[in-house]
Task: structure prediction
Amino acid sequence: MGEPQVTDEFNVGIKSHEDGGGESTLTVVIALVANTLVAIAKTIAAIITASASLVAEAAHSWADAGNEIFLLLADKRSRKVADPQHPLGYGREAYVWSLFAALGLFVAGAAVSIWHGIQELIQPEAAGDFLIGYIVLAIAFVLESISFLQSVRQARGEATHYDRDLLEHVLATSDPTLRAVFAEDAAALVGLVLAAAGLGLHQITGSPTPDSIGSILVGCVLGVVAVILIRRNVGFLIGEEVSPEVRRAALSALLALPEVARVTYLRLEFVGPRRVYLVGDVDLTGDRAEHVVADRLRALEAKVSANPAVAGTVLSLSADDEPSLTIDDPTPTV
Result:
């Protein structure tokens, strides 16, 4: 029998970029198509009806459509192969472009919607052709739901892999494109309900005030979502450790290697979507000469780095007085 595959010998508990990246691209493409169609329809309806809520929703959809371009760039550029200037690869570019997308949502979506709503409160304008507005909102709801269900399907599959709740995984995932599409589509569905309510109250009361308030509320929802996305991208850019569950899986895999007697330090930091950089201190089995131990360490680093989810590995020898990490307590000593 041949030797077991490296991915079987060492598994950090992270789905590799190759496993989830293709579905992330599909999720973004579906969102781009849906948001573009919705943006066009909302813009036409906003011009015809003069509804403040529809203007806010049109701005929202155009912001989302533009953001999907950033997310596609994030997905593509983060897949670039490592080179001598970037030995850990280009994974963190995903967070840079996703940060631009979140800032775009805040400025082109939230700020524009709130400002337009305030302007309508100061200088109200009566809306008309309400039926067209309702039809467009209904069509938009269907298209946004299709995009949202795709992101939910991907997120639910990954959440099951990590044994997490759906929302917990969306906030924790190292894939910024999945989080962005899920959050933007969820905000879009909430915004459509608010816009429909504002438009309906405008028609019932004859006052444009509810419509203007609807525009402001849509902007507030987008602002909250944008801030959450900005904070998560900044967190990954400055360096974020993996979850305790993944740490335990990685420690367990290291201890299962025949070369490793114990582990005294372990750090796993995300360097891109589903990619980690591993630093650890290990005590090797046996008692070998120094030059042999160095060769064994390099070979062990290569074995660990062969896992698709590991961008790089640096291992050092443990000191005799360093306490061992256990599966129950995998926290490194500081």
Q: What stands out?
A: The beta strands are 260-272, 275-284, 310-317.
